[in-house]
């Protein structure tokens, strides 16, 4: 076993958190129980690059219980829970290469520590592991069967590889599963992003104007939760359909240049760079809060903010205040990185239960279809989505209706009309 973590003495604290997550992830735990005896992943190396949280720990433990050798790194310099990493190493015997606050070099060194295990299957969040793997397929890719991708940003990066005929192995877009993006992205990020902002600042959202950049699944969830806490919400968009959805959902829709002078709190969730830049910061009110809920720290141009400032200071662990040359103050949360993971604990366990069930089942699917899949991006099978939703409903004690034979016949034939 190899590893690089911050402090293995934190393991007891991490173990308790993992146990808490397990008690709130019944779908994934049912899959663990189902496959821990047959061990379908025995002999396989699963290389992962996901946020090292208590929920991710439950996924890694499930993979290991199914027989896999697990090597893992973090997918964001500030999202690793050091106590979780310690427990996975000490209590589970897994190879983890992650700690909170790594430099850019250390971050990629950790990724390459995973690649040195020559993974059969990769599990990624943001595609950093997959992209680095593609640069070194000749060196580390002798066993590769396929991979999965957890988030929107990662899927977009990998689709660009596919479009340019450079995708080196099949990838399952876990993010595109309905039981992932309609729940994890909407309800998970919607709640946890605001949780991060509140933990970092203790700000009262009621009565504030919150500007949400992007109205995809993530932005939709954030806007809904902000309104629920009493904020007025402005949505900015570049996609006319998403903008129209936001307006029909009752939000004010404006360009960022107009919204910049109105907002008290700005939350980016687009997956694109320079969503908040110099021209926007120059128009902002004194004391605004800036936070990012997209995967990478490129949505808020920190370089522009620094150029407009003459001084900065740390207000607390997660808030840096910039004193602008126009005498206004700008408060940046979490270095512009994922606010829900930097300043809070990420998505609640209950919603990650479905996302990580999709990850585990996708690994099984890749193994089952070894050698038959093309080097392209695949969507989750509808049957898998439905199965996970049913298991989740059952765990919640919820029953639903079933189609009668006559109803099924009606829906699958065309003869019966008025």
TrEMBL record:
Pathway: Amino-acid biosynthesis; L-homocysteine biosynthesis; L-homocysteine from S-adenosyl-L-homocysteine: step 1/1. It is found in: Cytoplasm. Substrate binds at residues 53, 125, 150, 180, 184. It is an enzyme of class 3 (hydrolase). Pfam families: AdoHcyase, AdoHcyase_NAD. It catalyses: S-adenosyl-L-homocysteine + H2O = L-homocysteine + adenosine. Keywords: Cytoplasm, Hydrolase, NAD, One-carbon metabolism. Residues 185-346 form the S-adenosyl-L-homocysteine hydrolase NAD binding domain. GO terms for cellular component: cytosol. Its main location: cytoplasm. Signal peptide: none annotated. Its cofactor is NAD(+). GO terms for molecular function: adenosylhomocysteinase activity. Its EC number is 3.13.2.1. Binds 1 NAD(+) per subunit. NAD(+) binds at residues 151-153, 185, 214-221, 237, 242, 293-295, 340, 347. InterPro entries: Adenosylhomocyst_ase-like_sf (IPR042172), Adenosylhomocysteinase-like (IPR000043), Ado_hCys_hydrolase_NAD-bd (IPR015878), NAD(P)-bd_dom_sf (IPR036291), S-Ado-L-homoCys_hydrolase_CS (IPR020082). CDD domains: SAHH. GO terms for biological process: L-homocysteine biosynthetic process; one-carbon metabolic process; S-adenosylmethionine cycle. PROSITE patterns: ADOHCYASE_2. PANTHER family: ADENOSYLHOMOCYSTEINASE. Belongs to the adenosylhomocysteinase family. May play a key role in the regulation of the intracellular concentration of adenosylhomocysteine. This is Adenosylhomocysteinase.
């Amino acid at each position: 076993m190899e590893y690089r973590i911050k402090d293995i003495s934190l393991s007891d604290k991490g173990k308790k958190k993992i146990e808490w997550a397990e008690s709130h992830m019944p779908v994934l735990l049912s899959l663990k129980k189902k496959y821990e005896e047959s061990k379908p992943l025995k002999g396989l190396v699963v290389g992962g690059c996901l946020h090292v949280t208590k929920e991710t720990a439950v996924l890694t433990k499930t993979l290991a219980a199914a027989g896999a050798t697990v090597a893992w790194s973090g997918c964001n310099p500030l999202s690793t829970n050091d106590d979780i990493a310690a427990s996975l190493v000490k209590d589970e015997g897994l190879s983890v290469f992650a700690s909170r606050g790594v430099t850019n070099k250390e971050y990629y060194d950790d990724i390459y520590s995973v690649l040195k295990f020559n993974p059969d299957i990769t599990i990624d969040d943001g595609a950093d592991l997959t992209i680095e793997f593609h640069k070194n397929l000749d060196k580390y890719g002798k066993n590769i069967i396929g991979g999965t991708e957890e988030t929107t940003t990662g899927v977009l990066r990998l689709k660009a590889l596919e479009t340019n005929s450079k995708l080196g192995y099949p990838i399952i877009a876990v993010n595109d599963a309905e039981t992932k993006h309609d729940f994890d992205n909407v309800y998970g990020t919607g709640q946890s992003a605001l949780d991060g902002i509140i933990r970092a600042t203790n700000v009262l959202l009621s009565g504030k104007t919150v500007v949400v950049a992007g109205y995809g699944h993530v932005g939709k969830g954030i806007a809904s939760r902000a309104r629920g806490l009493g904020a007025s919400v402005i949505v900015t968009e570049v996609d006319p359909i998403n903008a129209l959805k936001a307006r029909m959902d009752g939000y004010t829709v404006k360009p960022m240049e107009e919204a910049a002078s109105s907002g008290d709190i700005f939350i980016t969730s687009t997956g694109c760079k320079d969503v908040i830049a110099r021209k926007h910061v120059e128009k902002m009110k004194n004391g605004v809060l800036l936070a990012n809920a997209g995967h990478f720290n490129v949505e808020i141009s920190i370089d522009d903010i620094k150029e407009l400032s003459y001084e900065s200071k740390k207000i607390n662990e997660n808030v840096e205040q910039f004193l602008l040359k126009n005498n206004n103050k700008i408060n940046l949360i979490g270095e512009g990185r994922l606010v829900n993971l930097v300043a809070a604990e990420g998505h609640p366990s209950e919603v990650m239960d479905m996302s990580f069930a999709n990850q585990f089942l996708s690994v099984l699917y890749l193994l089952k279809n070894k050698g038959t899949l093309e080097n392209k991006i695949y969507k989750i099978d509808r049957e898998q989505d439905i199965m996970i939703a049913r298991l989740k409903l059952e765990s919640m004690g919820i029953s639903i209706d079933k189609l009668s034979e006559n109803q099924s016949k009606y829906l699958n034939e065309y003869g019966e009309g008025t």
